[in-house]
Amino acid sequence: MRVDEQVVVVTGAGGGNGRAISRRLAAEGAHVVAADINLQAAEQTVEDIVENGGVATAVQVDVVDENSVQELFGIAVDLGGPHSVVAQAGVTVRGAIDQLELSEWNKLISVDVTGTFLTVREAIRAMMPRGGGSIVTMSGAFAYWSLPGTAGYAAAKGAILSFTRAVAAEYGDRGIRCNTIVPGYVATEMVSSFVDSQPAPGAAAEEISDWHALGRIAEPDEVAKLAVFLCSDESSFSTGSPFYVDGGLGLGINSNQRPLHTGGVN
Question: Which residue has the higher pLDDT, 247 or 200?
Answer without folding.
Answer: 247
